[in-house]
Specification:
Layout (H helix, E strand, L loop, with lengths): L6 H8 L4 H28 L47 H9 L8 H5 L13 E3 L8 H5 L15 H4 L24 H9 L5 E2 L7 E4 L3 H8 L5 H16 L2 H6 L4 E8 L21 H5 L1 E6 L7 E3 L11 H13 L4 E7 L10 H10 L3 E5 L10 H9 L1 E6 L9 H7 L3 E4 L22 E2 L2 H5 L5 H6 L3 H18 L14 H22 L11 H4 L30 H18 L2
């Protein structure tokens, strides 16, 4: 406690020769001068200083995620954390919203990354990718334990050759002599990550990165634990990844909104809605961190904004442009004796499936080739037999698989066969980065109800298309081949852009546009996440959506919650696994 000076002593000091009083005045003057010096120093030196690499001078909030999250409550209400709409809107408090408009661009921690695009002498300007160096538990260790990746077959053979699988021999002359592999449709995790190692604009300086890649094998992770494991085990790697990422300085730059990862399965494997042990999959895409990141999957959700669809891997993985050009020329010159074809099995347990009707129509037609993929039909699981059928057909029927999409669509286009789709979710609203928005240029669309209720004749419908139109459509399909395939990860195409290149550029554009919107203080207040599929169809510069002819196809499932998944989607994912078991039986 501070003690008071006795009055008598103070009086005696005043009566002395005055030196103590003079010293006090000098002390107070010096103290005042120091105070004003500090004020001016703070104003001119601290406030006008450049911001550090990973921290903006004004802390703009990009997400509602607390920085000290270590785990998630297993009983939390998922509806309390609504997914952030990726690149479509920003979340600011009113005070911060006013501050944003007054910021200088250089105040933002990603400003240096944006500036690299202005350096015309740098071929990587605006294209740099920073790759997180994840602990091996998130990727490499899974490959070492490849026998556990599939319940019914030894998956190790499919992880060879950087994820391409064993080479295919060209016994029947269906393939090229090189570049063909027995690739599993769910290995895009490792293929994509290995392709990233060949990307020409990698950087170890995250401050100049246009985007940040997270090489987590999300599809392999969930594949290990879907059958016979509780939800704690299924979620463990996803939760650990979230904790690891959110402690990194790179995360703080945009709260993860510049991060992306790959999950080589359909989105429903990562969208478990409840904490019930009987519910399907894990909750990776519902975690707070994942709602800010972008996840690339082989089938995306039409009602969510944090995932985007990329092509299933095919059997063709060329290591040079010439191999692609030779294949395209060969597909142009082929004689196709079948008007249309179908490879697939009926779905008797699914009353909404039209596969049974397609099979019956094909059997009755003299211009249709059918490969029935039921039990014991080995030809349907032979890459050579499938590709040979597609190469000899003008049109290839591509109804929904166990979910919206199927790998067969990409195998058929690789063969120069014009796909016939029956649901817009099978391609048109999925692969918007890789396929033209005008679907009539490369495909035929026949609504499912035309088959289910009107019993429309597919043969008659296809015969109505003029030969010159068919030729033009086939040429578009063949021209699309480079952007639908994944080049050999151990090399790189010279001039052509493959599915990996297209995806990475789309991510860069997405993050760059978001950063520019943040600097400009733009906010899309009208964004509706459950209509995410509509935004993907907008032309450049468009922001407003309205009623669409495909609305009936994407009405929310009544048995689900929030339209994110639901029992119908979970059942589709589970059926996909059951059919994978059948394929390997």
């Amino acid at each position: 406690m501070r003690r008071r000076l006795p009055v008598s002593n103070a009086h005696e000091m005043e009566k002395s020769n005055g030196k103590p009083q003079s010293s006090r005045i000098c002390f107070l003057a010096a103290l005042s001068a120091m105070f004003w010096f500090l004020i001016f120093y703070f104003h001119f030196t601290v406030l006008n200083a450049d911001p550090p690499a990973y921290q903006s001078k004004v802390p703009v909030s990009f997400d509602p995620i607390p920085s000290n999250i270590q785990h998630l409550d297993q009983n939390q209400d998922h509806n309390k954390n609504k997914p952030l709409p990726a690149s479509h809107s920003l979340t600011f408090t009113p005070h911060l919203k006013q501050l944003v408009t007054r910021h200088e661009p250089k105040d933002y921690p990603f400003f240096r990354a944006l500036k690299t695009a202005e350096n015309k002498s740098d071929p990587c300007g605006g294209r740099y990718i920073y790759v997180h160096d994840l602990p091996p538990q998130f990727n490499e260790n899974m490959l070492k334990e490849c026998k556990s990746l599939n319940l019914w077959t030894n998956f190790c053979k499919f992880t060879t050759n950087d994820g391409l699988g064993p080479p295919l021999e060209n016994v029947d002359g269906v393939f090229s002599n090189t570049g063909w592999y027995a690739t599993n449709q769910f290995t895009v995790d490792v293929i994509f990550s290995n392709r990233m190692k060949q990307y020409e604009c990698l950087t170890k300086d995250s401050s100049i990165a246009a985007a940040v890649f997270v090489p987590f094998y999300a599809g392999f992770d969930i594949a290990r634990y879907l059958w016979g494991y509780n939800i704690s085990v299924r979620d463990s790697a996803s939760l650990a990844l979230q904790d690891w990422l959110m402690k990194r300085p790179e995360w703080n730059v945009m709260g993860g909104r510049d991060h992306f990862l790959v999950g080589g399965r359909i989105t429903w494997d990562f969208r478990r809605l409840t904490e019930l042990e009987s519910d399907w999959g894990n909750k990776l895409l519902f975690l707070p961190a994942s709602k800010n990141m972008t996840m690339l999957v082989v089938e995306s959700s039409p009602w969510n904004a944090n995932d985007y669809a990329i092509p299933y891997p095919t059997y063709f993985h060329p290591d040079k442009d010439a191999d692609v050009f030779l294949w395209q020329d060969r597909m142009r010159k082929l004689e196709r004796k079948w008007l249309f074809s179908f490879a697939g099995a009926p779905r008797p347990d699914n009353p909404k499936s039209i596969r049974g009707q397609l099979i019956e129509q094909c059997k009755k037609s003299s211009v249709c080739k059918l490969l029935e993929c039921d039990f014991g039909e080995s030809k349907c699981h032979s890459p050579s037999s499938i590709m040979q059928m597609f190469q000899s057909s003008l049109f290839c029927l591509q109804p929904q698989g166990d979910s919206y999409t199927r790998r067969s669509a990409f195998d058929s286009m690789l063969a120069g066969c014009i796909p016939v789709f029956f649901h817009p979710g099978s391609a048109y609203t999925q692969y918007t980065w890789h396929l033209p928005k005008d679907y009539t240029k490369y495909s035929v669309f026949i609504p499912e109800d035309d088959i289910r209720k009107k019993n429309l004749s597919i043969e008659e419908r296809l015969k109505q298309i003029p030969p010159e139109t068919v030729k033009a459509m086939r040429e578009v399909v063949i021209s699309l081949i480079p952007r639908l395939i994944y080049a050999d990860p151990r090399s790189k195409l010279e001039t052509l852009k493959d599915a990996f290149d297209v995806s990475v550029q789309a991510i860069i554009d997405k993050v760059t546009n978001l950063r520019k919107d943040i600097i400009a203080g733009r906010e899309d207040k009208d964004f509706i996440e459950e209509n995410s599929w509509k935004y993907a169809l907008l032309e450049e510069g468009q922001r407003t959506i309205g009623a669409h002819e495909w609305d009936p196809f994407f009405s929310k499932p009544k048995d689900g919650q929030n339209g994110d998944s639901g029992s119908s989607s979970a059942a589709a994912a589970k059926n996909s696994w059951k059919n994978e078991q059948r394929d390997h039986s």
